[in-house]
């Protein structure tokens, strides 16, 4: 394993609820993260932060950092450090990544896969936080925008949007139907990408288009919030169901007008929280379950 012993990698990953077995990364279990940000401690760095510049020789090659330098992101965005290959020592890699923010907030490291280390605050970033990432001398500075959060409540079939704690918009919606096991899992997600149009095809995950729950359709104004193909998107065909019942295959359906507003206002890292669904909690270790770790 090129310098990583299976024992050292497993120990590092097990600490965050993940175990590596012959190169595969598997979830062992995790709790649900808090959805409301705690106040930062203005008197010093939060636990898990290190504001000192990195010095010495980095134990890894130059990484690719997300968010990119100069970006403005939502308060649910994690820091992602993509290494060019396996690192020799997980602990040394973490020690070489220095995170600091104004205001300072507590946070933690966790490994999404053996070549990708992540860091997130224990709860959402405060609005308008300035963040510096120094990963072995590769430095990125970004900031967060407003605390813009969409909460999809399956009990009411409403998508409630708050900005900095105040309700800005309430949108009737339809989520994943129980029939066929399509319920949208509970969890705290965040915007990962936005697509003006996207073809949704059930055959890409093994369900023939011609089968009972098969489909292939072009969807507009699609805001992706997980790596399993779930989006908030325009669904003119289900407007009569929105606010009343669940009829989708897992996505959050909203009207074309509301989808345009959502698409224009929500951007990378803005949280989308699903509650009161009968679909359990999102637990796939696929790169979008940060807030369940």
Structural class: mainly beta
Computed over alpha carbons, the radius of gyration is 20 Å
CATH class of the largest domain: Mainly Beta
Average pLDDT reading = 85
Helical amount: under 10%
Domain count: 2
What is the number of helical segments per DSSP (H or I, 4+ residues)? 3
Based on the structure given, which CATH architecture of the largest domain is correct? Beta Barrel
- Biggest sheet details: 5 strands, mixed
Shape: globular
Order of SSEs, N→C?
HEEEEEHEEEEEEEEEEEEEHE
Descriptive account of the structure:
Residues 36-50 have a biased composition (Pro residues). The chain has two domains: 6-144, Immunoglobulin-like (Sandwich); 148-292, L,D-transpeptidase catalytic domain-like (Beta Barrel). It is built from three helices and 19 strands. The strands form five sheets. The protein has a five-stranded mixed β-sheet, with no helix packed on it. A four-stranded antiparallel β-sheet has the order 3-5-8-7, with no helix packed on it. The chain has 293 residues and is mostly beta strands. It has helices at 6-14, 90-95, 256-265, and strands spanning 18-21, 24-27, 64-66, 72-73, 79-82, 97-102, 107-113, 116-121, 130-135, 138-144, 148-153, 158-163, 166-172, 187-190, 193-201, 216-224, 231-234, 252-254, 271-275. The longest helix has 10 residues, at 256-265.
């Amino acid at each position: 394993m090129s310098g990583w012993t299976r024992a050292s990698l497993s120990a590092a990953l097990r600490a965050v609820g993940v175990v590596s077995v012959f190169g595969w990364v598997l979830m062992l279990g995790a709790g649900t993260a808090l959805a409301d940000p705690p106040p930062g401690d203005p008197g010093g760095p939060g636990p898990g932060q290190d504001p000192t510049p990195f010095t010495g020789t980095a134990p890894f090659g130059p990484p690719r950092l997300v968010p990119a330098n100069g970006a403005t992101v939502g308060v649910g965005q994690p820091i992602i450090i993509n290494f060019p290959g396996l690192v020799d020592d997980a602990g040394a890699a973490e020690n070489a990544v220095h995170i600091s923010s104004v205001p300072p907030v507590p946070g933690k490291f966790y490994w999404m896969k053996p070549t990708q280390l992540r860091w997130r605050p224990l709860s959402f970033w405060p609005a308008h936080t300035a963040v510096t990432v120094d990963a072995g001398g590769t430095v990125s500075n970004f900031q967060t925008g407003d605390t813009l959060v969409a909460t999809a409540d399956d009990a009411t079939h409403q998508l409630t949007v708050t900005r900095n704690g105040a309700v800005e918009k309430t949108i009737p919606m339809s989520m994943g139907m129980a029939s066929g096991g399509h319920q949208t899992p509970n969890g705290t997600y965040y915007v990962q990408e936005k697509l003006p149009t996207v073809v949704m095809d059930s055959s890409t995950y093994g369900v023939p288009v011609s089968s009972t729950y098969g489909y292939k359709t072009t969807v507009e104004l699609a805001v992706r919030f997980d790596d399993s193909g779930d989006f908030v998107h325009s669904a003119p065909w289900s407007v009569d169901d929105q606010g009343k019942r669940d009829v989708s295959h897992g996505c959050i359906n909203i009207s074309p007008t509301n989808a345009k507003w959502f698409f224009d206002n929500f951007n990378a890292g803005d949280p989308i929280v699903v509650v009161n669904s009968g679909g359990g909690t999102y637990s796939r270790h696929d790169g979008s379950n940060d807030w369940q770790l």
